[in-house]
Amino acid sequence: MFDYAQRLKKLRTRMQEQNVALVFLRPEANLFYLAGIPHRDHYRTDHNAYGDWAVGAYIGLQDGIVLTAPRMGGEYLCAQVEDKPWFEQVRTIDESEDPLDIMKQVLSRFDLNGKRVALEDHAWAQTALALHRLLPETELVSSGNLIAPMRAIKDEAELDLMRKGGQICAAAFQRALACLKLGVTAWDVESEIDYQLRRMGASFNSFPTNVVLSNPNKDPSRSVAKTERRLEPGDAVTFDFGCIFQGYASDFGRTAFAGVPPAEYQRMHDLVLNAQCAALEVMRAGQVTGARVNATARKVMEEGGYGPEFSHRLGHGIGVTVHEPPWLDVVEDRVLRAGMTFTVEPSIRIPNGYCNRVEDVVLVTKTGGVSLYEAGRQLYIVG
């Protein structure tokens, strides 16, 4: 599906331009993007295998990737490289061996004289310390400047997977609405969403599902457990969830209301929609920065009287991971380019009061932002 050889070639070109002789990547999102090794879970865990801080891919300027794998669980990585000729060797780390010695052996294969080594942003601190110990004269740098710009621009194959993930979210939301009856808890609804995401083909959630019941007349501190607080007339219900489909993330947000919403709450929702539409209108490739898009939506909220209640950034890049650069915030000075994908998620959060949100994954085009899927954005009435 993806041209990994071309991606690796582009990476090595960027390495040469930045005087980087070696890139170390953990078996996570970047390695999936560059070399097709699926990461089985998007959540980082504590240490779960001997020498896991030394586990990862060593990518040099020449063809052939060396992959180190733990003995416990390493069978998965070994199986994944069998049909991938761009991997030269898999070196398993046994409990009888010192991981530092294994890392030293692998590093000896590469010509690092006078060049930099780029380290995965999410690598263990132990990894950085070990590299510094073994290569005291070598400058360690972040791999982010090498890989993030590549990941930011999506091709059609990537967009197809992201569309499918968004469609799964939209369908799961409709199933959740069907069970959104008076008396249910937020936990009940979250559980239904998680079940539907998996049933419809998602590998796992892109982040923990979050359903919030808000009502200025009920438990204003929102401290009541989600297993206890039950849906009542007059409650607003906000949804924020997403899934991973074949390695690519989605992020979805909507709002429902139990009963007839007050006129001011309907105005809040219309304001959120208008802010999102204004942002999409200006998201023209090559013409606007992330900060400008954020400011455009924020101006709508401020003029509508809810500026302070729009308390977070407008959105974030999304792709192999659910949160990735570039951003739609007050400081993002990078110009949007065709093929970039972002969440656009204006919201209102009133302390001890109502909440409202709408969120979609949007593709940047020459004529503006376009949602990757069709899903109604109206205020849904339930109960």
Please explain how this structure is put together.
- The protein is of the alpha+beta class and 383 residues long.
- It has helices at residues 4-17, 29-35, 74-80, 99-107, 125-134, 144-152, 156-178, 186-199, 263-282, 290-303, and strands at residues 20-25, 56-60, 65-70, 87-93, 116-119, 140-142, 204-205, 210-214, 236-241, 243-245, 248-249, 252-258, 315-317, 324-328, 341-344, 347-349, 355-357, 360-365, 368-371, 380-382.
- α7 crosses α8 (186-199).
How many strands?
Answer: 20
Per DSSP, what share of the residues sits in E-state strands of 2 or more residues?
A: 15-25%
SS element count, helices: 10
CATH topology of the largest domain: Creatine Amidinohydrolase
Question: Major β-sheet, in short?
Answer: 6 strands, mixed
Topology:
Blueprint: H1 4-17, E1 20-25, H2 29-35, E2 56-60, E3 65-70, H3 74-80, E4 87-93, H4 99-107, E5 116-119, H5 125-134, E6 140-142, H6 144-152, H7 156-178, H8 186-199, E7 204-205, E8 210-214, E9 236-241, E10 243-245, E11 248-249, E12 252-258, H9 263-282, H10 290-303, E13 315-317, E14 324-328, E15 341-344, E16 347-349, E17 355-357, E18 360-365, E19 368-371, E20 380-382
Parallel strand pairs: 1-5, 3-4, 5-6, 12-20
Antiparallel strand pairs: 1-2, 2-3, 7-10, 8-9, 9-12, 10-11, 13-14, 15-18, 16-17, 18-19
Helix pairs in contact: 7-8, 9-10
